[in-house]
Design goal:
The protein is mainly β. The radius of gyration is 21 Å and the shape is globular.
């Protein structure tokens, strides 16, 4: 769910009133006849401008009962200032349910480790993997160093998937014990991605052939929890039937989503 779709009328109708009391009222509507859990609602810097607070890490959201919700300030454009331009939070919706939220400003958000439901990182110690996860699933993809590893070299832009049976974040622990192909009760890496496209790898079809990039060569993290992990992977240019193609892949994973 995006605030620009769900609450723009509310934001447009109430700026004077909201500025007077230092808050904004947001209305979100589930227009489907289906329950929607862990829906992410996005508020842009423009939406939040009436609050008069440029530091989006100081934005707070409460539900109709006055309970503080977990929020995350996100830098979506990765500009030279690296300043957040969006605030996100999550809520569950019953079929056709409407919910209201109050947005205010205060002290900068301070998280605990228990708040984090999404995380990702560059794994230099495992031949330059990049791995990421939320409370439901984990993934990884392969970096340049794996192409020349003498033990088991692999050239692939496949997206591997790790099945989880626990909501806790496991990437760091699984890499630490280096036994993630064995299920000890939390799940495991059951799938051999190899050179397949697996779960999200891409390619271009030309001349009756699938053309794909090699392993990524650099990465940059745009935001890293507690609700959303978002990063970009840069690949060397590759040939597609005589044409050189460049690739930058942006990956986003929110808590509660597959």
């Amino acid at each position: 769910m995006k605030a620009t779709l769900l609450s723009s009328a509310c934001l447009g109708a109430l700026p004077a009133l909201c500025c007077a009391v230092g808050s904004l009222n947001i209305t979100a509507v589930n227009e489907l006849q289906l329950a929607r859990t862990h829906e992410t609602i996005e508020l842009s810097a423009k939406d939040l401008a009436p609050l008069g607070e440029r530091a989006l890490t100081k934005v707070h959201v409460q539900d109709a009962g006055g309970h503080e919700l977990l929020t995350q300030a996100v830098d979506t454009d990765f500009d030279e200032l690296h300043q957040p331009d969006t605030v996100i939070f999550q809520a569950d919706f019953a079929p056709r349910e409407t919910k209201t939220f109050t947005v205010t400003t205060g002290k900068q958000q301070v998280y605990t480790a228990a708040d984090f439901k999404a995380h990702g990182r560059f794994v230099r110690e495992r031949f330059d993997d990049f791995a990421w996860e939320n409370d439901r699933v984990a993934h990884r993809t392969y970096g340049k160093a794996l192409e020349t590893w003498k033990g088991e070299p692999l050239t692939s832009s496949s997206i591997d998937i790790w099945s989880k049976r626990t909501p806790k974040l496991v990437i760091d622990e699984w890499y630490l014990v280096d036994n993630y192909h064995v299920d000890t009760g939390e799940g495991a890496d059951f799938y051999s991605a190899g050179t397949s496209r697996s779960c999200g790898g891409n390619g271009l079809w030309a001349a009756d052939k699938l053309w794909v990039s090699g392993n990524f060569v650099s990465s940059r993290v745009l935001t890293n929890g507690p609700i959303r992990v978002m990063f970009e992977l840069v690949y060397d240019s590759f040939d597609v039937n005589g044409t050189k193609v460049s690739e930058v892949k942006r990956v986003t994973l929110d808590a509660g989503r597959l």
